[in-house]
Design a protein that fits this description.
single chain; mainly alpha; Rossmann fold; Serine Threonine Protein Phosphatase 5, Tetratricopeptide repeat; 5-stranded parallel sheet; two-stranded antiparallel ribbon; 68% helix; disordered C terminus; AAA family ATPase; WH-like_DNA-bd_sf; ATP-binding; Sig_transdc_resp-reg_C-effctor; TPR-like_helical_dom_sf
Length: 916
């Protein structure tokens, strides 16, 4: 079984498993709360499910005073058969030490216990590989440490692996000879943010969750303690106000501050209050003895002064604890002092806001100005925080000013990728009594930030349209979002009508962004329907010409233009269009629509057989989802499923796809739902599950039935014909094939024709027309070769090889499989390589299969292991996952009845180089 790593610790887990695979020793070192024990338990669980014996102990501080406690815990689950093989005298000593026999009152001989435990371990590792897992190594008792150290020095590495965890700064009694020390550092934000948001009970959005993660220094325990404190309070955190600090750190900081003189305490608090504290700033803020005060604080372990005059706290939480320790009135006074000396307008505005608890238009105006400055600098997240504080400081009498600032907050939040916060800010305006123009702006902000969920916002779209019509003024943006809503629900006629009206109204009003967004919907729908859209595409290009300031609208247009190329097999043109969009996003700092561009770019790369590039694009898409809340979050998850289908595990890809499909159905995006179901059906077909493919493809067919036929629908019908024919439902397959032939009134892409031929071939073979099937597959393969689409070629050749095998034409089948293997290897599609290896094995006569028990991939893995490569090096050289290497080696161990890498090398070192 492959290791299931802890989120955010995949690389560390893979490194540990690679070291332990050779009977190595690993020591995990990290600060308290950093997650050492979680990683250790995850790896221990995986090891426990593999052949061999895994022994665990988790000593605590009180155990360190009692002899042999760790040994007793560690050997508690050792089967009795191992003890029974010890000589009687040795057995007695061992059982007394492990409390498996009532004590006699005589003092145990330490050397006798050491020798006895050494003999026991030797018997155990002779029978099976043994792994010792010890958490909190600093609490191992002295007696156990002496025995284990004695044994480990004499057993050496090999069949006895050791995994232990140690708190940073501690000196363990038990030294692990030859151990590799690995640091368990801060948890990445992408793994920590979702957990923090869940622990806070919905009271924090992504931005506050990221602030909590930064404050915790990536320490999971600290971050979850802060989130839990927020959840207990039941109050949503206010920008600028301190977050809860873990109790033990707060207590520690109070104790250290109490040791300082009053003036030093004031200086340290001022340093914690300032955003960028320096010695000069503290002196200007009324701390004349700042250098001496900071020296005292450094000796107390609170903060330090570096050579450039900057004040640095050892951990972000120490600074937060110092700030939170000061009474509110003291904090306000310190902010007031800093207002007088701060030169940065953003810092000064923040201090002004926190220097008073009253609504004040002067403060609100200063914060608004600072927010606009931050927005111009591209710091949308900072701008959102500042304008949110401005709204809080706006007097109740200025309702319009408050609403305007909340709408600016929604806009900045959207630009920063904080969709939930954008909807919340705009929703607050809708819930208040404000003039109709402000309500219209709020409706637009809600619809803009709805993302994937816009398909189910029928009531909100209707309400926005009603308010726009009541005002008697054309509102192109409202109709744009109405068109997006209809397109997501596959109401194509309504979508085209609204989008066409919006494009004309926006053109009349000179609103280029609105016109582009409307054209984007027209292009999207017409492309889906297979209708010509050259006129709209030309108009969009005219609007884009020479403009670099159109943001998301430009990205969406480039995406649709690229999709039209992709749909018609013009992959080079699609790639160029998408790269242009990526450059625009990079130059302008645009994130809206970027997930659509990156996903289609990855699909183009997969289609062209550029697996390594596709994986890099998917990784970038994942990072985007960490940094912001993408509008199409389900698309990001789907990209991961696509990568898994190509380079990981097809069953795992199917599992991920089913989860994404369920989430897509919940938000009502029927357009994406149809596409996802279509692709999942294709994966199930390749996996040899036609019945499951029929079910999901039929669902996709129902969603698009009644719409004009385009290339994507042709591909769907081809897969549905193939699935029904493979499942034995020939009548249904013939009916669908007739429907597919009925689409020939419009030109089909080369790939769509190849897919139809592939489907016809499966049906022909099922009807007994074998030669027709081979001819059709040969023609389809030629089309795929000409297009340069190795994954589609693989599907065709796999079917052709299966037919040739059934005709007992093994040579022809082998040639087809070899070509398919070359195509998959060149494209980096490792799942295809594994499937083809199994098909090659089926061609071998039964009596010869014992002579070639390994797949080509397994042979390559064995060859590298024989040469001394670690699991990690094997994975790197073969461009596969470390978990794939581990799973393959486990299978090989069982197949050849061996138990370690040493035995594997001995078993295969005499194999000739052709096999290896």
């Amino acid at each position: 079984m492959a290791t299931v790593p802890v989120a955010g610790r995949q690389e560390l887990t893979a490194h540990v498993m690679a070291e332990l695979a050779d009977g190595g020793r690993v020591l995990l070192v990290g600060d308290a709360g950093m997650g050492k024990s979680t990683v250790l338990r995850s790896i221990a669980t995986t090891i426990g499910e593999r052949p061999g014996l895994s022994l665990s102990a988790s000593p605590v501080e009180t155990d360190a005073r009692m002899p042999f406690v760790t040994l007793i815990d560690l050997f508690a689950d050792v089967p009795a058969e191992h003890f029974e093989r010890l000589p009687p005298a040795t057995l007695r000593v061992v059982e007394l030490a492990l409390r498996r026999r009532a004590p006699t009152g005589q003092e145990l001989d330490t050397l006798g216990v050491c020798l006895g435990m050494l003999d026991l371990l030797r018997l155990m590792i002779d029978a099976a590989p043994v792994t010792l897992v010890m958490d909190d190594l600093q609490w191992v008792d002295q007696a156990s440490a002496e025995v284990l150290a004695f044994a480990l020095r004499r057993l050496g590495t090999g069949r006895l692996s050791v995994l232990a965890a140690l708190r940073s700064g501690e000196t363990p009694r038990l030294a692990l000879p030859d151990a590799v020390s690995l640091e368990v550092g801060p948890l990445p934000m992408d793994a920590l943010v979702p957990v923090v948001m869940a622990r806070a009970g919905g009271l924090v959005g992504r931005q506050i969750a990221q602030r909590i993660c930064t404050l915790s220094g990536g320490n999971p325990l600290f971050a979850l303690e802060i989130a839990a404190a927020v959840a207990r309070s039941g109050v949503r955190p206010v920008p600028g106000q301190p977050l809860p600090v873990p109790v033990h750190l707060d207590t520690l900081m109070r104790q250290r501050l109490a040791l300082l003189p009053v003036t030093a305490r004031d200086t340290v608090r001022m340093a914690a209050t300032a955003y960028r504290p320096t010695l000069t700033l503290l002196d200007q803020a009324g701390c004349p003895a700042a250098e001496a005060d900071l020296t005292a604080a450094s000796e107390a372990g609170i903060c330090d002064l570096d050579s450039s005059g900057r004040v640095a706290f050892g951990h972000p939480l120490l600074r937060a604890a110092v700030y939170a320790d000061a009474p509110v009135i003291v904090r306000m006074a310190m902010h007031a002092r800093l207002v007088q000396v701060s030169t940065d307008p953003i810092d000064r505005a923040r201090h002004m806001a926190l220097a008073t608890a009253l609504e004040d238009e002067t403060v609100a105006a200063a914060l608004t100005t600072a927010a606009e400055l931050a927005g111009r600098r591209g710091a949308s997240g900072v701008a959102r925080e500042l304008i949110g504080m401005a709204a809080l400081r706006t007097p109740p009498t200025n309702r319009a000013g408050w609403a305007t600032r909340k709408l600016a907050e929604a806009r900045y939040a959207y630009q920063a990728g904080l969709l939930s916060e954008a909807r919340e800010a705009a929703g607050a305006v809708l819930a208040a009594e404000v003039p109709r123009p402000l309500r219209m702006s709020a409706w637009l902000a809600v619809l803009e930030a709805s993302g994937d969920a816009i398909g189910q916002l029928g009531d909100q779209v209707a309400a926005a349209c009603a308010e726009a019509e009541a005002g008697g003024e054309p509102h192109p943006w409202v109709r744009v979002y109405a068109a997006v809503h209809h397109a997501a629900a596959l109401r194509t006629d309504a979508a085209l009508a609204d989008a066409s009206w919006a494009a004309q109204a926006a053109a009349a009003a000179g609103d280029v962004r609105a016109e582009l967004r409307a054209l984007h919907v027209v292009l999207r729908v017409k492309s889906r329907l297979g209708q010509p859209c050259a006129e709209e595409a030309a108009q969009a290009r005219r609007l884009l010409a020479g403009r670099t300031d159109l943001g998301e609208a430009a990205l969406l247009i480039h995406h649709e233009l690229a999709w039209e190329h992709y749909d018609n097999d013009r992959y080079a043109e699609a790639y160029d269009e998408l790269r242009t969009a990526v450059r625009l996003a990079e130059d302008g700092g645009t994130v809206g629509g970027l997930e659509l561009v990156l996903h289609l770019l990855a699909r183009v790369q997969w289609r062209r057989g550029q697996g390594a590039s596709a994986l890099a694009t998917v990784a970038r898409l994942q990072q985007l989802a960490v940094d912001v809340e993408p509008a199409s979050a389900n698309l990001v998850s789907w990209a991961l499923a696509e990568a898994e289908a190509a380079t990981g595990s097809l069953p795992r890809a199917v599992e991920l796809a089913e989860q994404v499909i369920a989430a897509t159905e919940r938000v009502g995006d029927l357009d994406k739902l149809a596409r996802f179901c279509q692709q999942l059906g294709a994966w199930r077909l390749v996996a040899g599950a036609p019945a499951g493919a029929v079910a999901v493809l039929h669902r996709a067919h129902l969603l698009v039935r009644g719409l004009p036929i385009g290339n994507q629908t042709r591909l769907l019908l081809a897969d549905l014909v193939e699935a029904h024919a493979a499942a034995g439902d020939l009548a249904q397959a013939r009916g669908l094939l007739a429907e597919l032939h009925g689409t020939d009134t419009q030109p089909a892409s080369v790939l769509a024709v190849a897919a139809r031929q592939r489907a016809e071939a499966v049906l022909a073979f099922a009807e007994g027309r074998v030669d027709d099937a081979i001819d059709l597959l040969s023609s389809a393969a030629d089309r795929c070769r000409a297009l340069g689409t190795p994954i589609e070629l693989y599907r065709v050749l796999l079917l052709a090889a299966d037919i040739e095998r059934r005709r007992r034409r093994r040579g022809a089948a082998r040639a087809l499989l070899d070509e398919a293997t070359e195509a998959c290897l060149a494209a980096g599609v490792t799942t295809g390589v594994d499937r083809l290896a199994r098909e090659v094995a089926r061609l071998m006569p039964t009596q010869n299969r014992r002579d070639t028990p390994l797949t080509p991939m397994e042979k390559r893995i064995v060859a590298l292991v024989v040469r001394g490569a670690t699991n990690r090096e094997v994975a790197r050289d073969l461009s596969i996952a470390v978990t794939t290497v581990e799973g393959s080696l486990t299978k090989i161990y069982r197949q050849f009845q061996i138990r370690s890498r040493v035995e594997l090398v001995r078993a295969f070192e005499l194999i000739d180089s052709g096999v290896a």
